[in-house]
Design brief:
The protein is an alpha/beta fold and 316 residues long. The strands form three sheets. Strands 5-2-1-6-7-8-9 form a seven-stranded mixed sheet. Strands 10, 11, 12, 13, 14 and 15 form a six-stranded antiparallel sheet that branches. Strands 3-4 form a two-stranded antiparallel sheet. A hairpin with a 2-residue loop joins strand 10 and strand 11. The N and C termini lie far apart (71 Å).
Length: 316
């Protein structure tokens, strides 16, 4: 007779770095799971002042007195995990490729909470791509970790609705709940052999790419809907910007105006928004940030910068 494996009694090592991972980690800890260590990326400069701050999962680990490990390159430095000897490894947005030798350490294997409904959107930025493409739903997939990126068997999916006004911040809030539910609902059956997983349909696989600095710039030769979705996908971090008279102006909220106009030309500028022509339709910016200043709602920005933009001027 096989002994029942209780998910909350085994030793779990958590691999993750950003906010979504930290918030799910805290929920898991508070729910009674035995997290014996947290592995995160190194602390990096953040914000306008470029202060070196602890990454979000490190903050949670320290709050609950859980050992934290931050190897520069885990593919070269993972012997410490052998000493921890975890029963199970769970990753959520760690940010580095996991080497094969590490995958073989835990007796119950390694699971990943991936931010899409696989096999759609394998890769580094699945949530951003769901917003970029204007998808109406996404979700979390509890999956097997294998040597190939996001290619393992799928054990459970939790769907998340994407509303028209969602951005990365609000979508992350929803995905935190979905990831926690996927883990709670799927871990018992996985550990006890009641769920053998489902192979991914290779014909349905799509990939995402890492968001690069050049992706942050707005091109008004694109359509209004694409620009609107880009702002949603990159808000709040790293954010989008447009260039005007040699300066970069960041934006984080927009509206689509269906009237047609000439791309790159200012249609109007007042307390209701800065409207600029696009390839199809117009885009209205409802919050703007000058270099070195704070992001402001358009009413406040306009009151302090009434002469900054003029009708029929060209935006580069």
């Amino acid at each position: 007779m096989n002994l029942i494996v209780e998910p909350k009694k085994i030793k779990i090592l958590w691999l993750g770095t950003p906010r979504i991972s930290s918030e799910v980690l805290e929920k898991v800890i508070l729910d009674g799971f035995n997290i014996v260590g947290v592995v995160a990326q190194e602390d990096k400069p953040a914000g306008r002042k470029k202060q070196i701050l602890p990454v979000p999962t490190k903050v949670v680990a320290q709050k609950y007195n859980i050992p934290i490990y931050q190897p520069a390159k885990i593919r070269l430095d993972y012997d410490f995990i052998k000493d921890i000897n975890p029963d199970l490894i769970i990753t959520l947005a760690y940010g580095q490729i996991i080497p094969h030798g590490l995958l073989e350490i835990p007796k119950y294997g390694c699971l990943n909470l991936h931010g899409s409904l696989l096999p759609k959107y394998r890769g580094a930025a699945p949530m951003q791509y769901a917003l970029l493409n204007g998808d109406k739903k996404t979700g979390i997939t509890l999956m097997e970790m294998v040597d190939e990126m996001d290619a393992g068997k799928m054990y459970l999916k939790e769907e998340v609705r994407i509303d028209d006004d969602d951005n990365m911040e609000t979508l992350t809030d929803k995905m935190v709940i979905a990831a926690f539910n996927a883990l709670k609902n799927g871990l018992y059956d996985y550990l006890n052999g009641a769920n053998n997983g489902e192979e991914q349909n290779l014909e349905e696989v799509t990939f995402t790419k890492k968001i690069k600095p050049e992706d942050e710039k707005i091109d008004f030769n694109d359509t209004a809907i694409n620009i609107h979705n880009k702002v949603r996908a990159l808000n709040p971090d790293p954010g989008c910007y447009f260039e005007f008279n040699g300066l970069n102006y960041k934006v984080n909220s927009t509206k689509i105006i269906n009237n047609n106009s000439i791309p790159n030309v200012i249609v109007s500028y007042d307390k209701n928004g800065l409207i600029i022509g696009c390839k199809e339709g117009c885009i209205c910016f409802t919050s703007i940030q000058k270099p070195g200043k704070n992001m402001l709602k358009i009413q406040d920005f306009y009151n302090g910068n009434r002469e900054l933009f003029k009708k029929d001027e060209i935006i580069k």
